[in-house]
Specification:
The structure holds two protein chains of two kinds. Chain A is built from two helices and four strands, in the order βαββαβ. In chain A, a hairpin with a 4-residue loop joins β2 and β3. Chain A is α+β, with helices and mostly antiparallel strands. Helices cover 53% and strands 18% of the residues of chain B. By secondary structure, chain B is of the alpha+beta class. The chains are: A alpha+beta, B alpha+beta. At the A-B interface, β1, α1, β2 and α2 of A face α2, α4 and α9 of B.
């Protein structure tokens, strides 16, 4: 399942790269890309357990940049 | 632009305004403290280096620095230790510890100035790119009986009717039910030449309706519309990273730890060596001063340890390049393709539809004993039920309506032709091989093209020549590509004389004809062996039946034909205007982008290295290092913005 989220307060390009690396390490994530320019996060992951995966993603992002929020539209 | 984006930008400016006030206040207090310090020391009221000065400087320091300290602390709690906040805190607190009060404040002030500039630059880039990509329609005028209501394009269903008034963007792909007007396709193709459309014409989203209102029946939902696909394509292009981007990301990972390690070594080793060898080298002040001096230099190292300039400017350059390209009608699906394109050494072209228009037209009718009209009519009648491009060409030339009752017993023989009964007579229409099989004495034409022979009741009736027209800009495109040092090769399945004629006319380096699909792949493999390892091979085709070759090439370019879904899917780059000259545009853009990326990388790394050396030698001090680092960042980002330029 592929989903795109908007990111708020993504101010550091280095952090975007770190986030991407960490998200890719999460179990069940097939591909992920953090677009610093457009402040978007696109994730492709297993459909079953997608919500749990997203919870882990939110945690990882908070760790790297605490101010950054993932918007679920 | 979406409301979220707009609000974000207003938000950022508020944050930025706050920062500007903080920085200005801090600078004022800093200057006040600095001047006071000098006066007080000169006036012998307070001795130099006294702890009193700490209190004077700590105020401006905290004004600009408390947030940095707070963020560093928060990040450490989350396990993120080595970020630039932490390094700046260590550097500035270190400076305070060794009594370098003005330096500490200056470091924080310049760090914040740098962050602010970066913020502004990134904000501007985002704004520019968003404006470039501003093809998204905000609303659609949905017609429901007598009512017209403004709805979100996403809510419109297939079959709904929308009204597009003059000046409005076409919100969805559809077919015109009523009205005729001109469309401005500049947002999608970069071409300002307006397209005239009228009833039953298909139109695509993103164009601007210029003259009269149009009633359009929607044929695809917003998610599947051309505009959405293009937006997604550019957004997703960030996922396909260029080799230089990957290099920078990897480099950044190692850069900070290495510089920090070097800083530690720099702070510890030279003093230790000094003390162990008991030599008094270049300073006569004593051990304490030696430690201070080397710690100072080490702190300078820390200050340069952030690779931000590189990490931002490289992806920004590529993204800006892709945005600029899409504005000119060239859709690039990833920065890796953009970078590969800049290294293109060989370009292989498909012929039909790529270098030629792909619309076969009748160019000569040579009858044998009967009239031209009769010959054409007979051929058309025979090809009545076929939708082969040849039959379409014949019907196009004939123009008159075809009476199907005159035709019966049509049999199509693959690779040969068609036989049937027309007006009670046996007719055979096909290629030379067909005529040979039938034993009919035919003669070829001196003209180059696809020759359709016609025989009536075992007698040769004549032939019609159908040929494909070369696109207007093909010749110039080939010349321009050759001028760039690129080898141009044509691969076609068409016959030798046709291929040769076009090859010579366009002045191609090489051309290969009569190729079956698998032959094309083999030829591409051969060409790949010929080029250097770092050089790239590009294949240009019409997408659908060139799939195996497109995959084999380093970069696959397809003629997009303003909305051909299959082409947009398969290729790496899509030319919205179907013009070979756009390939030249794309290559020039890619070379320019790459040049700017290389400039940024070498400039940033070069300056950092120089300052590291100067810092180690004690020539550069901390705030100079921060200043230079900041300057490099800002220059790199501004330089990257040059990639946005659309050169006409």
């Amino acid at each position: 399942m592929k989903k795109v989220y908007e990111l708020e307060n993504l101010d550091c390009a280095n952090c975007a790269a770190k986030m991407e690396r960490k998200i890719l390490k999460i179990d069940g994530v097939q591909s992920a890309s953090v677009n610093f320019m457009m402040q978007k996060l696109s994730i492709e992951a297993n459909e079953s357990g997608f919500d749990e995966i997203m919870e882990k993603v939110v945690k990882v992002c908070k760790k790297v940049e605490p101010d950054c929020k993932i918007l679920d539209n | 632009m979406s409301l979220i984006a707009k609000s974000l930008i207003i938000k950022m400016s508020k944050k930025q305004k706050k920062k500007i006030i903080q920085i200005s206040l801090a600078i004022l207090l800093f200057v006040a403290a600095f001047v006071s310090e000098k006066l007080l020391v000169k006036g012998l009221i307070i001795e130099n280096g006294s702890i009193w000065f700490l209190f004077m400087y700590i105020v401006p320091y905290l004004i600009v620095g408390w947030k940095v300290i707070a963020e560093a602390g928060e990040n450490i709690l989350h396990g993120q230790i080595f970020d630039e906040n932490f390094l700046m805190v260590i550097a500035s607190i270190g400076a305070l510890c060794i009594g370098e009060y003005p330096e500490a404040v200056a470091v924080m002030i310049f760090f914040q100035i740098g962050e602010l500039f970066e913020d502004i630059a990134v904000g501007k880039s985002r704004k520019s790119i968003a404006a470039l990509m501003d093809i998204k329609p905000e609303y659609a005028n949905l017609i429901d009986g007598d009512k017209i209501s403004k709805v979100k394009p996403e809510k419109v269903e297939i079959g709904d009717i929308v009204l597009v008034k003059p000046g409005e963007k076409v919100p969805l792909d559809g077919i015109i039910e009523q009205g005729s007007s001109s469309l401005n396709t500049v947002a999608l193709t970069g071409e300002s030449l307006p397209r005239d459309v009228s009833e039953n014409d298909g139109i695509i989203s993103g164009c601007i309706n210029m003259r009269t209102p149009l009633r359009v029946r929607v044929t695809s939902k917003y998610e599947d519309s051309t505009v959405k696909k293009i937006l997604e394509l550019v957004e997703n292009s960030a996922a396909n990273k260029a080799p230089s981007e990957n290099f920078i990301t990897k480099f950044a990972k190692f850069y900070t730890p290495i510089v920090v390690a070097c800083a530690v070594l720099l702070a510890v080793l030279p003093p230790l060596v000094n003390i162990l060898t008991k030599s008094v080298a270049y300073t006569t002040v004593g051990a304490g001063a030696i430690w201070t001096e080397w710690i100072r230099r080490a702190l300078t190292f820390l200050v340069i340890s952030c690779p931000c300039a590189l990490v931002i400017s490289v992806p920004l350059s590529f993204f800006a390049g892709i945005g600029s390209a899409s504005k000119q009608g060239v859709l690039i699906k990833g920065s890796n393709y953009l970078e590969a394109l800049s290294k293109a050494k060989i370009i292989a072209f498909d012929k039909t539809g790529t270098l030629t228009k792909g619309n076969f037209t009748v160019t000569a009718i040579h009858p044998n004993k009967i009239s031209e009209d009769e010959l054409l009519e007979t051929a058309c009648l025979a090809e009545l039920y076929s939708d082969h491009p040849i039959s379409l060409a014949l019907k196009g030339a004939y123009k008159k309506p075809i009476e199907s009752k005159r035709v019966s017993n049509i049999v199509e023989i693959a690779g040969k032709g068609i036989s049937g009964m027309i007006d009670g007579r046996k007719v055979y229409v096909g290629n030379g091989k067909y005529m040979e099989t039938l034993g009919i004495d035919y003669h070829d034409c001196s003209q180059v093209g696809t020759i359709v022979h016609i025989a009536i009741e075992d007698e040769y009736a004549g032939h019609i020549v159908i040929s494909d027209q070369i696109k207007a800009d093909s010749r110039q495109a080939i010349l321009d590509l050759r001028a760039l040092g690129i080898k141009t090769v044509m691969l076609t399945g068409d016959r030798k004389n046709v291929g040769e004629s076009i090859g010579k006319k366009l002045k191609l380096n090489e051309y290969y004809c009569e190729l079956l699909p698998k032959d094309k792949v083999e030829k591409v493999e051969e060409l790949i062996k010929q080029k250097g390892k770092k050089e790239k091979l590009v294949f240009v085709g019409d997408g659908i039946n060139d799939a195996p070759v497109l995959t084999r090439a380093d970069v696959g370019i397809a003629m997009g034909a303003l909305g051909s879904d299959a082409a947009i899917e398969t290729a790496d780059i899509v030319l919205m205007n179907d013009k070979p000259s756009d390939i030249v545009k794309a290559i020039r853009l890619s070379k320019r982008t790459r040049k700017i990326v290389v400039e940024n990388i070498s400039f940033a790394l070069g300056v950092k290295l120089i300052i590291l050396i100067l810092g180690a030698l004690g020539i550069a001090n901390m705030w100079f290092a921060v200043f230079a680092d900041v300057g490099v960042s800002v220059i790199a980002i501004l330089n990257a913005m040059r990639c946005l330029k659309v050169n006409k």
